[in-house]
User: Fold this.
Amino acid sequence: MLAYANREALELTLKTGYAHYYSRSRGKLWKKGEESGNFQRVVEIRVDCDEDTLLYLVEQKGVACHTGNYSCFFRKLEEV
Assistant:
């Protein structure tokens, strides 16, 4: 999945070991799975070469996508 994390969300992720994100539309932090039960336990965090993007490697409990798919990236471009 793709999500936004601000500094506070990253700090909570590092502290708890579970993925936290920042919802720009709701203007608040959220822990992935707190409503759905589909938690993400963070195994490793990687940073890209420009140091402006993080990649969370997670153990996914349940699905990641709000559509019910395991991943948000379940369609090929030609299917769109």
About this structure: The chain has one helix and four strands. The longest strand covers residues 40-47.
